[in-house]
Design a protein that fits this description.
Radius of gyration: 31 Å
Shape: elongated
Order of helices and strands: HHHHEEEEEEH
Helix content: 40-55%
Number of domains: 2
Number of strands: 6
Structural class: alpha+beta
Largest sheet: 6 strands, antiparallel
Strand content: 15-25%
Distance between the termini: 50 Å
Length: 274
């Protein structure tokens, strides 16, 4: 390789790397603005978010490369022209093709690599992030009980508290509507104070209630009367099922038939079956 070719390539590599990461950042921000509503408030672990961003970044590489090549080429030859290096090279007898030839071969090599990347890595990355975002969409938001507001995020329960301590666990003026029987507001629990916490396995939401009472309306379809039972307690613990709050991973085989998850050979096989 001639010294001039090494110089042109070295002048191109720097802008190429910089513009690649800038392009990836812009595309990642575009993805984030689109899906931010599905990600916030879900209590997702950093490992899950990192896994999602990693696979999304892989899918954005084929989109970032053309933009990177365009911008880095403009920056390289713009710099050569600004410092009169391009004019000096042409005056020494080199043609424009001769100056650009090492970059042409470099871009061809990048294009071949991008093809194999799109054929082998891209389908797998699409499968991973599509299945993961599907699971995130079906995950319930994290529990966020606010003062003076009714919270119905837990299945078949509605909770209202008048005040919360700064620790976020101690509650005052608690009112809980229990809809587990399917007859509406037939059971109401009221307590002066309480404390909320998660079970060790994370599957249940525990509320320890102090100094309260509960109202139970007995529903009997055979009787026109509905007696009301009032129970007083000094301490009571409710265990609420948190089904839907965990991130349950869906079988990825359900997504494999989508064209975005297929490589060239698999697409040809699918066409043969039509």
């Amino acid at each position: 390789m001639k010294a001039i070719h090494r110089y042109v390539i070295s002048s191109f590599i720097g802008p190429f790397i910089i513009t690649f990461f800038i392009s990836m950042f812009v595309l990642m921000m575009q993805f984030l603005w689109k899906w931010i509503d599905e990600l916030i408030g879900k209590g997702l672990e950093l490992s899950v978010i990192g896994e999602l961003f990693f696979y999304v970044a892989l899918t954005l590489v084929p989109l970032a490369l053309p933009l990177t090549i365009l911008l880095s080429s403009l920056m390289t030859f713009g710099s050569l022209g600004e410092h009169y290096e391009l004019a000096a090279l042409k005056s020494s007898g080199l043609s424009l093709y001769g100056i650009m030839r090492p970059l042409i071969f470099f871009v061809i090599a990048v294009s071949i690599g991008a093809f194999f990347f799109s054929n082998h890595v891209l389908p797998y990355a699409n499968l991973k992030w599509r299945s993961l975002i599907f699971d995130v969409q079906h995950k319930k938001p994290a529990i966020a009980i606010k003062e003076g507001a009714f919270y119905n995020g837990i299945n078949r329960y509605v909770i209202r508290v008048e005040k919360k301590d700064p620790d976020g666990k101690t509650l005052y003026g608690i009112m809980i509507y229990d809809h587990t029987q399917g007859f509406g507001n037939t059971r109401v629990v009221i307590a002066e104070s309480g404390k909320m916490e998660m079970s060790e396995d994370g599957k249940y939401f525990l509320i320890s209630l102090n100094q309260g009472f509960s109202y139970d309306e007995v529903i009997d379809q055979k009787s026109p009367n509905f007696p009301l039972i009032r129970t007083v307690f000094s301490h009571k613990t409710l265990r609420l099922n948190l089904t839907g709050f965990d991130l349950n991973r869906t079988d990825e085989d359900l997504f494999k038939s989508n064209y975005e998850m297929l490589n060239l050979k698999q697409i040809e096989s699918e066409l043969d079956t039509l």
